[in-house]
């Protein structure tokens, strides 16, 4: 079923109802998760006293744990043809972990364990959710469908830091932030159960959905190249918390305003997600993905040069609009329907492992050499990846 009524510059877009339902689930869930994400870097580094290297290890755990479970989740979802079920388990696990953050208190070890469990939930849900989006839309409108979903998701990313700021302002207690985040996450699970529909199962022999069959997807040249490009660029993509810590350090923004920094990124992402998705459908998804990483190089340069915070956040928002959903839209149509979840999980796993390594490397570089030399190396790495892609393609 499609729902019409979205308009952009006079153009009406027909959006699958399942995409809208998944977008609403992501909107609510992102309010919950971004409440925590907005305060966690400040809480860990400036309240618990973690060094940049220690936080880099914690942030690397954020990406690394998802890499461990993505492939298993994708395989299970395709083998059982139950993508909604696997995604729901991931959403539920992440919801419970919000209470675990409160129980962790000031223990860095327990905090790491809860973050690992929360990221396990994200690893379980991401590929099945994206597969449901991809299977709900036509091949010609993948960029648009992911753009609409990511726009709704970003509304949550915009509201989450505001909610965290309001709760901290009213109570001054991080525990209250975690409890409110838990209650909102539960609402997201309820919306998934009530409104998201499983796609009709693809009738294939059960033995066809096996791990070696998933790995064999890399034999398809176009999909293999996208996986290599995403992993290579992930290896030089500094994670959001480091960007915001650098921005706070460089501009002297008051610590109590730190949770508001992601709002600038989210606002630009929200405005651009749909039009950039439509542009990717017309111009080419991989070129738009690469353009997004050119913007990321600009972010590094602006951070190193002490640019105003609004400019950094604006360019960072464009980076996300041109890369996040666009990558999934580029890869989805290259994969057979009955292996769509497994294939997207394979792509996301390579990217997550690369970003885990990047967080650890950049945290070490900041600790031993300062923040700017690490940015120079990461920016040079992006340029090298893009140049290499142009040569081999």
Structural class: mainly alpha
Helix content: over 70%
* Count of individual beta strands: 2
The major β-sheet equals: 2 strands, antiparallel
Shape: globular
Low-confidence stretches: 1-12
Beta-strand percent range: under 5%
Overall pLDDT confidence: 85
Q: Treating each run of at least 4 consecutive H or I residues as one helix, how many helices?
A: 15
Radius of gyration: 20 Å
Order of helices and strands: EEHHHHHHHHHHHHHHH
What is the strand arrangement across the widest sheet? Answer: 1-2
Distance between the termini: 38 Å
Subcellular location: Cell membrane
Keywords: Membrane, Transmembrane, Transmembrane helix
InterPro entries: MFS (IPR011701), MFS_dom (IPR020846), MFS_trans_sf (IPR036259)
Protein name: MFS transporter
